[in-house]
UniProtKB/TrEMBL annotation:
GO CC aspect terms: membrane
A Pfam entry, by short name: EamA
Name this polypeptide is given: Drug/metabolite transporter (DMT)-like permease
Keyword vocabulary terms for this entry: Membrane, Transmembrane, Transmembrane helix
Organism: Rhizobium leguminosarum
PANTHER family tied to this protein: ACYL-MALONYL CONDENSING ENZYME-RELATED, EAMA DOMAIN-CONTAINING PROTEIN
Amino acid sequence: MKLRATLIGFTAILMWSFLALFTAASGKMPPFQLSAVCFAIGSLPGLAVLALNPSRLALLKQPVKVWITGISGLFGYHFLYFTALRNAPAVEAGLIAYLWPLLIVVGSALLPGERLRWYHVTGALAGLCGTFLIVGRNGIDFNGAYAVGYGAAFLCAFTWSGYSLLTRRFDAVSTDVVTGFCLATSILSLVCHLGLETTVWPATAFEWLAVAGLGLLPVGAAFYAWDHGVKNGDIQILGAASYAAPLLSTLILTLFGFAEPSWRIALACLLVTGGAVLAARDMFRRKIQPAVAAQ
């Protein structure tokens, strides 16, 4: 059960790895508008489930703290991420924001029934180093003039890690509630778009297809899968494995001609993969021990 939930959570990481490709192909729609449209699309699978089985609507009746946690996680993360990108260089902001997997691994020690081991932290740090090679391939230059953007990126990392850890505490809450989180995030993003941006719609059918792909996968199904994974799977493994997202994203961009292959990618592969395997040591041990006992 725990292994299955962990693997479902990992599908979210796989879907997030397509975020850069779909975003690059989606045209020039401004970020909050794109967020509003994509989260609206992302809510459609959940709405379809609720329409086919209206009795599940009762599952949306949850304590206020559940709704605050979910909406703050999804909308808060994207609001802070976009704010960081508006006020700091994308490379530095992205690297700071991607501290969240490490924060999940370290913060998991505060969760009931979880124990933080040296190999969890070491695996997460290896993934962070791999991410540094990918994100900082053109150099890193932190500048005090971008303090607002850096601060937003730090808050971004704490927001998503906090959401993921708190979600674990709401393990009895059905994943159906993510539908409501997506709808609320879409509405709040629309409000930000109307107040801060100029509306730009996709120019071609291909761009619309990319927007639909974003809404159905990285900004849709991925959040349902992540919710199930962090509630029922191994959150420490998922935290460390999350560093695979920027690596896989770069590999996908390279495959489609948006980036060039390099030694950095090869080394990052070793660091991220090795770190994830190290962090998953307990899971592999649990798989091996029953097999040995059966012999």
